[in-house]
Amino acid sequence: MIQFDDVSKRYPGGHSALNHLSFQVDHNEMVFLTGHSGAGKSTLLKLIMMMERPTSGQVFVDGKNLNRLSSRKIPQHRREVGVVFQNHQLLFDRTVFDNVALPLIIAGFQPRDVGRRVRAALDKVGLLDKEKKSPVTLSGGEQQRVGIARAVVNKPKLLLADEPTGNLDPQLSAEIMHLFEQFNQVGVTVLIATHDLSLIARMPYRVMSLQEGQILHGGVSTL
Ligand code: ADP
Ligand code: ADP
Prior knowledge:
single chain; alpha/beta; Rossmann fold; 2 domains; six-stranded mixed sheet; four-stranded antiparallel sheet; 7 helices; binds adenosine-5'-diphosphate
């Protein structure tokens, strides 16, 4: 589902964030990405989302060579990849429903289909009864679940998350990770950047660790 071939990323003026990185993530795998702050985790995720382009090397997502994808095709690509952020990036002046509906509106879905899909996504994260609320009135864990519903509402085959439990206590963090497991169990490939090592130590998934833009261990698929 994801393949990096000798990928390097150097930011203008900065030192290199990724250094000749090669790895792959299989279809339907669930993988954790760890490493200290500055190790290159966010950069790796941004290359998959095409928020950045590699300085050299090639990134493939679901068989597509991203180097060959023109800027015009980026919105389409982004719709196929669900993304969850630590700070949710929710719109607080809109309802839960509207937040989750946003990717569908942008993609041009008909209102009837929007309603059906938004409720299906809210149901999966256990928030069907909160659709009319403002995210401000929800707890941190609930807000993160709204972010997850928004990430999966387009039914992406690939789900990325950057520190999705960063601000949550251990109990809520475990619940959020369990949600990702549930999506993985129905066929979604999941890649989660986290530095919550104690949380993932108890989970049976590959852990790929980065250090200074290179893979320290876990670069090989375990499926
Ligand atoms: P992590 O997510 O593991 O903390 P990042 O991918 O954010 O790591 O950062 C990797 C390295 O690249 C760091 O040295 C960081 O300062 C640098 N970096 C990240 N984004 C930028 C940017 N937009 N411009 C310049 N340097 C950046
Ligand atoms: P994280 O460690 O979670 O990646 P950071 O606080 O390092 O978060 O980075 C936040 C944002 O700033 C990211 O979009 C990252 O790409 C950007 N960034 C990080 N380091 C630099 C840098 N040296 N110069 C410019 N932008 C940077």
